[in-house]
């Protein structure tokens, strides 16, 4: 399946049971809610999906299960975050074998590569596969920036097609478009900047809080792209206290708590993460419950 790289791509959470096993029935419940809301693709094994704690066997189960359940309706993308180039190549091959349509490829983990090494990393992995690739550009969290000059080198690889723009600099959308036109699709990777970046020309949104609020997320995107900015902004302003949960180092716990509150998930996380307790949990719950109590009525966004 080819990937158009526009619209809403949830970086979906991985559901666990109390016994720390994959909870596929709960995962499917959330997946169906995402599909019903009108998402355009789905990303497995991202940071929000607790990828660093998943075994290769679990990634295989999740990927094959998702591919089967979506049944060609949307593309399935698998995250790759490895420290060695050869292991990233191996994961890319496995992703294709399991039925994924694309890869979300991070720069090398645990080593701060320079521009030459970063470009070589992406070119080497991309040359090993025909799967479509979205580059994850997040220098704040991962300390490596995929610069404009690096993207210039990546143009020669036809399957490097998009960027998850998480530099936290909304001007980077304009820089990318000014330099490369439509060569790379741009998907906002930070919930709190999504509407701003879409107004500037971003093609989509790799969302976090979409895990708990899929309809609101898709509505913001479709209204914005239809030019109905005032309606999108009204929803976005309601949404912002929730979207700010995506900024925390504990975004997994915060977003899973939101999923549990709306009946689309559970609070179970995999160690070393621990579920929230005490005043911290109550503070996050207050944000979630206040927002849910004031949840907006959405227009007919699915027809847009």
Short description, anyone?
With 304 residues, the protein is α/β, with parallel strands linked by helices.
Describe the structure.
- It contains 12 helices and 8 strands.
- It has 304 residues and is of the alpha/beta class.
- It has an 8-stranded parallel β-sheet.
- α9 runs antiparallel to α10 and α11 (251-261) crosses α12.
- The two termini are 24 Å apart.
- 46% of the residues are buried.
- The mean pLDDT is 97.
Features:
8-stranded parallel sheet, alpha/beta, 304 residues, single chain
Shape: globular
Into which percent range does the helicity of residues fall? 40-55%
Largest sheet: 8 strands, parallel
Question: What is the rounded distance between the termini?
Answer: 24 Å
Number of helices: 12
Uncertain segments? none
What is the β-strand count? 8
- By secondary-structure content and strand pairing, the structural class works out as alpha/beta
Relative strand content: 5-15%
What's the oligomerization state? Answer: single chain
């Amino acid at each position: 399946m080819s990937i158009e790289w526009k619209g809403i791509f949830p970086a979906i959470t991985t559901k666990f049971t109390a016994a720390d096993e994959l909870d596929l029935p709960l995962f499917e419940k959330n997946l169906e809610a995402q599909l019903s809301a009108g998402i355009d693709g789905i990303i497995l094994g991202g940071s929000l999906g607790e990828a660093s704690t998943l075994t290769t066997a679990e990634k295989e189960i999740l990927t094959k299960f998702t591919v089967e359940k979506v049944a060609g309706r949307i593309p399935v993308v698998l995250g790759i975050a490895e420290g060695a180039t050869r292991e990233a190549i191996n994961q890319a091959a496995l992703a294709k074998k399991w039925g994924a349509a694309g890869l979300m490829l991070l720069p090398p983990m645990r080593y701060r590569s320079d521009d030459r090494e970063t470009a070589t990393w992406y070119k080497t992995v991309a040359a090993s596969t025909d799967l479509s690739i979205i580059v994850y550009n997040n220098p704040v969290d991962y300390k490596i920036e995929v610069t404009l000059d690096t993207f210039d080198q990546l143009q020669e690889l036809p399957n490097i097609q998009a960027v998850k723009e998480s530099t936290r600099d909304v001007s980077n959308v304009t820089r990318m478009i000014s330099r490369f036109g439509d060569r790379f699709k741009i998907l906002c990777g930070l919930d709190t900047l999504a509407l701003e970046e879409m107004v500037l020309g971003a093609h989509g949104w790799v969302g976090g809080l979409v895990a708990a609020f899929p309809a609101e997320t898709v509505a913001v995107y479709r209204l914005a792209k239809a030019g109905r900015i005032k309606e999108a902004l009204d929803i976005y302003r309601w949404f912002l206290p929730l979207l700010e949960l995506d900024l925390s180092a504990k975004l997994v716990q915060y977003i899973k708590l939101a999923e549990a509150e709306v009946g689309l998930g559970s609070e179970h996380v995999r160690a070393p993460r621990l579920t929230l307790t005490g005043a911290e949990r109550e503070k996050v719950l207050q944000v979630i419950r206040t927002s849910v109590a004031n949840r907006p009525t959405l227009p007919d966004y699915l027809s847009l």
